[in-house]
Predict the structure.
Amino acid sequence: MINYLKIYLPIYLVAYLLVSFVVPTYKTYKQTGINPITFGKNDNAHDYIGFVMKILIGLLFIAVLFFAISDNLYQFTSPILYLQNHYLEILGLILIHISLLWITIAQYQMSTSWRIGIDEINKTDLVTKGIFSVSRNPIFIGMILSVFGLFLIIPNAITLFCTLTTYIVIQIQIRLEEDFLEKQHGKEYVDYRKTTRRLL
């Protein structure tokens, strides 16, 4: 299992980034001419969250690459030995694949309303059908599950930090987006929020 994971996890992480960010960003830009990446470099909460997310992605890559390249390098991530067992690896693998499928479906259903961050310039449609009828933030759920799944597969200080920080940062981002969506869509969003849970 370990040798297989050393080859597979870097491939999965690249596929995850392609599905979650690169492909929908490219498709949205091609279809609308709008850059869906809205995080900038201003000194505000929204853009700071974008900065933190980039760091978290980088740390995940470091943890996975250290694991894949060398046992000696991996020791620098401070592995959590008592969590290293076959059953948690299997559970983690199940979670990362469910989350990838879940995100793919949510991305498809969101279509050109997809944004990374809050778009205050271009109004988007409020997507409420499909997966979005059971969760207001299905893509964020998928992101949380993906990082948690990686933690279960390679439990160490970095993946633990990324799991906890990802959850906190996403919860903050969700609340920023909720305030914005209520201003943009008014009663339509208020009614949607009453009938659909924030996560699950």
Remarks:
- The mean pLDDT is 92.
- The two ends are 32 Å apart (CA to CA).
- The helical segments are 2-32, 45-69, 71-74, 86-110, 138-153, 157-185, 187-195.
- The chain has seven helices and no strands.
